[in-house]
Amino acid sequence: MKSTGKEWFVIINPNAGRRKGEKDWNEISKLLTEAGLEYTCVFTDAPNHAVKLSRKYIEAGFRKIIVVGGDGTLNEVINGIFTQRKYAPDEIIVAMIPVGTGNDWGRSFSIPYDYKEAISVIAREKTVRQDVGRVNYTSGDRQHTRHFINMAGIGFDAEVANKTNRQKREGKSGPLSYLVNIFTSLMQFKPVHTNFLIDNKPVNEHIFSASIAICQFNGGGMKQAPHAIPDDGLFDITIITKVSRTTVLRNVLKLYDGSFVKLQQVKQFRGQVVKIDSEPALLLETDGESLGYTPMTFEILPRAVTVVTGNKE
User: Fold this and answer.
1) N or C: which end of the chain has fewer CB within 10 A?
2) What is the pLDDT of residues 127-143, one digit of tens each?
3) Which architecture characterizes domain 132-303 according to CATH?
């Protein structure tokens, strides 16, 4: 299992994209070989298995990882990288072949959906270093820590993600699941009084939703943090305050071009440390994966991981 140094470790989530990971693997593996990439591959077989696999193979000497999956699989690999002890996290190179339903992280780095083109990007091995978020949150009666590479959400956003993830586990999700769940969740969710501390500056609001972003997209192409820069050492915090259902429905398409931030109910901040508490507790998701709830603390880790990019500049 020891790496040659040039070899990639490929983690495949067979369930990603309604089992596209499994169905398309033969095609993807053939393209990897044709591109001249040396690799060792393993399929995940349970939630969080990619955390354990990436940690195990890094400790065996692998420093280059290809994720064949979606944002959730990528999130697990990031958490494996930050819990292994062999290398500094920024010494690990992470690449992506998207087969998930959302694939939001890849939008910020011009990762193609076409398998052959995505593998061409990997073969070029042009890399950049980007920020990583770390959140301490509550689950049960304990505090937990999770890293994320794209975006975290609380409130309505996390409720929608939680419903979408339940559908994924039941094999009922699709490309429009997130959008459909926005509408179906709208009738139940009520704004919650929430206390933010952003770099020690208090912000107190009844919030509908909030995102703590490194990159720009989530929810399958929604531009929820249109001004986020992945390597500026800052979170972009977007807070949607108390808002009527009619206003949400009338403006939902503005989520896709980022123009929703011009609404009077939207407030934007930047910061390195964000502390959040609320009553009642609000749910949390990171990179689309449902976790725990408030209270929680977010910290930015500047330029902490190396990723393969398709961006030309």
Assistant:
1) C
2) 999 999 999 999 988 99
3) Sandwich (2.60)
Asked if residues 246 and 136 have their Cβ atoms less than 8 Å apart, the reply is no
Name 69's Cβ contacts closer than 8 Å, sequence gap at least 6: 11, 12, 13, 16, 21, 44, 50, 99, 100
Q: Does domain 8-125 have CATH number 3.40.50.10330?
A: yes
Task: State the Cα–Cα distance between residues 22 and 17, nearest whole angstrom.
Answer: 9
DSSP reduced 3-state for 149 = coil
Dist CA 261 CA 281 (whole Å): 25
Paired sense of beta strands 192-198 and 201-213, if any:
antiparallel
| Whole-angstrom distance, CA of residue 178 vs CA of residue 184 | 10
Both tokens of 66, joined, read 């290809």
Chain segment 162-184, per-residue pLDDT in tens = 787 777 766 666 656 767 777 77
The Cβ-side half-sphere exposure at 185, using a 13 Å CA radius, reads 22
Which tokens belong to 202?
A: 């208090």
The answer to whether residues 73 and 46 touch, using CB atoms and an 8 Å cutoff, is: no
Cis peptide before 295 (omega within 30 of 0): yes
User: The dihedral of CA 12, 13, 16, 19: what is its sign?
Assistant: positive
* Residue 217 per-residue DSSP state: -
Map tokens 């398998």 to a residue: 115
